[in-house]
Specification:
single chain; about 55 residues; Eukaryotic RPB6 RNA polymerase subunit
Length: about 55
């Protein structure tokens, strides 16, 4: 698993949360209905299909 800064982590989870709230399929089995909680679970399990491109 890659090491992300807290800003990258917030951006990834926020973007994925927005995708879920707009109807994107959920990639983990969960009982939660809150898009932010679902995105956090996906991030923790490492299944979010979002990458970070660093310029340095």
């Amino acid at each position: 698993m890659k090491v992300y800064t807290r800003y990258e982590r917030a951006r990834i989870i926020g973007a994925r949360s927005l995708q879920i709230s707009m109807g994107a399929p959920v990639l983990v089995r969960t009982s939660s209905i809150d898009p932010l909680e679902i995105a956090e679970e996906e991030f923790t399990k490492g299944v979010i299909p979002i990458t970070v491109k660093r310029t340095r």
